[in-house]
């Protein structure tokens, strides 16, 4: 029979091994799909140092980023909020726009995602569409009432950041 002390040591060992494996995978460029720890007591040392390497990203963000519509919809149906922000303040909408997934953006907006949500830098999905030069998505967002004049933390609006020749973006409410 295991004593409490042995169980605690075993848990520390297992968490340390998990952190080492994840660290090794991340450093070798391997893709970690979803890592989420609800309640883990970490007493310092190797485990906490290794776990700090993993950026908080929930499943819904991963599915939005990767364009996995079916899995994204399952998340939402199970009660996961479309407004959930990751450690950088990005919502699933930000990730969908960043990666060019129009169908994901449409699905999120049809489930009341905020078209004007701001990340930690004060940027909205329209900022992302403009910076990534995704004109079709930018037009879609404007048609969905995305605010073109919202300033980010550096004082730039999507219109300010637009290097492309998108005259429709300059005219309020006149998306083609």
UniProtKB/TrEMBL annotation:
ANK repeat placement: 88-120, 121-153
TM annotation in the entry: none
GO biological process entries: translation
One Gene Ontology term, aspect cellular component: ribosome
Source organism superkingdom: Eukaryota
Entry keyword set: ANK repeat, Lipid-binding
Stored Pfam families: Ank_2
InterPro entries referenced in this protein's UniProt entry, alphabetically: Ankyrin_rpt, Ankyrin_rpt-contain_sf, Ribosomal_uL13_sf
GO molecular function terms attached to this record: fatty-acyl-CoA binding; structural constituent of ribosome
Stored SMART domains: ANK (SM00248)
PANTHER family from the UniProt entry: ACYL-COA-BINDING DOMAIN-CONTAINING PROTEIN 6 (PTHR24119)
Name listed for the protein in its UniProt record: Uncharacterized protein
